[in-house]
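Structural prep section.
Before we set up the soaks we want a predicted structure of the protein with flavin mononucleotide in place, mainly to decide which crystallisation condition to try first. Input record follows.
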Amino acid sequence: MEIYEIVFSATGRTQKVVDIISSVFSGEKNKIDLSNYNTKDKNYELSKDCFCVVAVPVYGGRVPKPAVERLQNIKGNGASALLVAVYGNRAIDDCLLELKNILTQQGFKCRAAISAVAEHSMMPQYGANRPDKQDEDELKDFAKKVMEGLENNTLTESIDVPGKFPYVKASSMPLKIEVNNNCIKCGKCARRCPVGAISLEEPNTTDTKKCITCMRCIEECPQKARSLPPKLMSVVSFSMKSKFKGRKENKLYI
Ligand SMILES: Cc1cc2nc3c(=O)[nH]c(=O)nc-3n(C[C@H](O)[C@H](O)[C@H](O)COP(=O)(O)O)c2cc1C
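Run finished without errors. Recording the tokens verbatim:
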């Protein structure tokens, strides 16, 4: 069986969860990086002998738009999929259902699903230090159950996941990334942006129509020149505080 990791991870938190889950599946892993801008022009054909861990972060209760578009260039041809939604301790809303519907349409068999908590990439005080040791143990345990199900051929072809259609409307927070004078125009942000929202000629600007505020440019800028407006961020995070309270659980759907 060929193993694939098909992952959108702007700031590495989703990938961290995938690394934990994948550590249980032995053998070489083929990787399709949905957060690489160049992936948008690539097409893939898989087969029923493939097992795919398909993982996305939850954005406003949904699958990130560029991940939706890039998944539509992958044909499953009966490949088995383990769906993974990684979220920042608020909620996954309709993300897993949307992911399942896209993959089913693309010819995958959605055999199991996981929702897992990781540090919030925009408000890191929420879900701080997760996944931790307890998460790691749980996620490995989930992955082992999925592996056993695959080996014994006991997994369903179409897993039930939470969520409802029509999906929650993806919120568009009026957040604009600011660039300060520390910017040396090295262009790293432009080369790494998942949606091509930063030009190499003017890396101190951002195309707000394309930007999905995924936080990658902010986290990876070597000069710490990029940020979200701090005052607005503290208002947003304070106003949403109650939605993030308590330790949210990882869940396995099998
Ligand atoms: C634009 C945006 C929207 C988000 N929306 C949600 C959400 O609706 N619910 C939630 O619990 N976390 C939300 N988060 C947190 C991310 O799902 C979480 O931090 C995830 O681990 C980020 O993955 P990454 O590091 O692979 O990009 C959001 C983060 C961003 C950047």
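Observations: Residues 9-15, 57-61, 86-91, 118-122, 213-215 surround flavin mononucleotide (CB under 6 Å).
Flagged for discussion at group meeting.
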